[in-house]
Amino acid sequence: MLADLKRLQDLDDLERGDRRALEEDQVRLREAGARLESFETRFEEIRQELEEMKNRHLRLEGEAAGLSAKKDNNEKRQMSVKNNNEYAALQKEAEFLRTRLGEVEDEILELLEKIDRNDLQSADLSLLLAEERLAHEKAVTEIGKAAAGARERLGLSAERRQSLAASLPPAQLKQYEEIAKVRGGRAVSAAADGLCLACRLAFPPQIYNELQRNEKILNCPNCGRIIYWRGHPDFKEEESPS
Ligand SMILES: [Zn+2]
Questions:
Q1: How many angstroms does the Cα of residue 164 sit away from the middle of ligand 1?
Q2: Which of 115, 116, 189, 231 is least buried, going by the fewest C-beta atoms within 10 A?
Q3: Cα 225 to ligand 1 centroid, rounded to whole Å
Q4: Which mean pLDDT values do the consecutive 10-residue runs of the chain (242 residues) have?
Q5: Please, what are the domains in the chain?
Q6: How much distance in Å is there from the Cα of 213 to the middle of ligand 1?
């Protein structure tokens, strides 16, 4: 019976572990999604910036062409000028056109440099984004597989737990559940070297002797958990190597 209680505890421990792993996987999945999203956003920002700069470049080229045409026209009119007033006005216009054309050409050069830099940045980011998308896809697949495994184990252990619980005397099961509720799910603890391994209390020799005989169910006088002696043949083979 004590061995069954320990088996029940082992199943509950496994279940807790699987549930925790499932929750952690969900957190990892959300984090991976958020990371990819921030990459996508940054990439989209750079792409939009680039598009705006290219549009601005087109507008500036248009303006430069218009200014050049006006400049040619102004030069032609200067050749057939009729009076000083007209000449002065044409000179003033020519000065304005030269200045503005200079400004526009400077801005075009500056913009072309920026577009080059942005193109490179965008190409780098596009590579990173492709890697990030692959990594995300891989994480989703891996986490999905792990989660499916955990769910399958949970289903199996739920079945085993149910039949194990049904085979236990109801009073024992009730005691187990009550202790588990107040002891963080750990109702059963191993004892070794005269100690309860859960709360580290040293047992009086009489209790420890009784425990080693493994004839009845005992509780730790300190933490109340159901205790078993780890050295008894009933439990030895079930102990994990750790
Ligand atoms: Zn204890």
A1: 24
A2: 116
A3: 6
A4: 92 94 92 93 93 97 97 94 92 96 97 94 92 93 92 93 95 96 96 94 92 92 95 73 44
A5: 11-167 (1.10.287.1490), 170-236 (no CATH)
A6: 18
